[in-house]
Amino acid sequence: MNRFADELLRWFDHHGRKDLPWQHPRDAYRVWLSEIMLQQTQVVTVIGYFQRFVERLPTLRDLAAADEDTVLALWSGLGYYRRARFLHAAAKLCIERHGGELPRELDALMALPGIGRSTAGAILAQAHGLRFPILDGNVKRVLARYHGVAGFPGESAIEKRLWVHADEHTPAVRTADYTQAIMDLGATVCVRSKPACLLCPQAASCVAHRDGLTAVLPTVKPGKKIPTRAVAMLLLRDRQGRVLLERRGPTGVWSGLWSLPEAPDADAAPTAAARLARVRSIDALPAFTHVFSHYRLDVSPILFDHAAPLARVAEGTERRWCAPADLAALGLPAPVRSLLDNLPEITP
Ligand code: SF4
Fold first, then answer.
1. What pLDDT, in 10s, does the model give residues 167-178?
2. Given ligand 1 and candidates 8, 138, 140, 145, which is best to mutate, with the most ligand atoms within 8 Å of its CB?
3. Half-sphere exposure of residue 96, counting CA atoms within 13 Å on the CB side?
4. 147 CB near ligand 1 (under 6 Å)
5. What is the CATH number of domain 3-132+170-188?
6. Are 180 and 121 in contact (CB under 8 A)?
7. Would you list the domain boundaries of the chain?
8. Is the overall model pTM greater than 0.85, yes or no?
């Protein structure tokens, strides 16, 4: 075995994480689900979501048979909902093409929605012990520092170099443990700011540690300012406390989730609300900002209490008046759920 893997596995035997829920049992469906949830999200946050998800949908077949609302509701709060939709679509394709199992070939896995080379490698290594490297964000950080690779790891030339290093270090034995070990090292020791090099099994050969470069490697993304957009969210609430929700379209942010009707700004809100219901009282709630990866959204929530449904605005699969008790079963964007959970009492 190579020295890098050898040191890492020795460290893993003492300090690695061996009690994560997706490790018991470590089957392909559970590894896959955990890998998708862990993209952009930390382990501590993922654990609860993972457990609820597998309790409700314990197998790939259960996931494929579930309706989209169920999947999105289980994902609600994790963000990046495209991941959930891809997961769902991939499960259905596995039923159609692969006899209800995740395939064991790299190319066939990568042909499924939402599965890139690193996720495919993690599934093959962790669930089947096959020798495939991974290169998620944590691993990129470790390898960029260890080998002193400068340049933004999102650039394809840099990423290619890191894949070469990832491949050369991946051992043919204990591949599953090694894969977990390098993810753990990045998540707990070689962390983004102030890595704990004194506790690191790779410190003796690490270029960034030797040359004092841990603060500048990996190279950050060249600066990019994100734009700001604004929207007014309309909270139309009837006398029973039900709120009017609309399903968002199939593209764009929060696609397919249930959300609130919108107007371009607070001034346009009363007219937009009057198209949906008869409204009497109007109240501006505290504004807030939600940050997406590519823009900031300034939200002005406007509450219209004592709203009365209009006969011409029909309910159906795209629009419904929803009682507070029914919200838990719906896929809602996290800021909308928080808004609905914290509404003031209905004015008499
Ligand atoms: S020695 Fe420090 S910088 Fe190098 S891999 Fe270990 S924690 Fe990361």
1. 999 999 999 999
2. 145
3. 7
4. no
5. 1.10.340.30
6. no
7. 3-132+170-188, 228-341
8. no
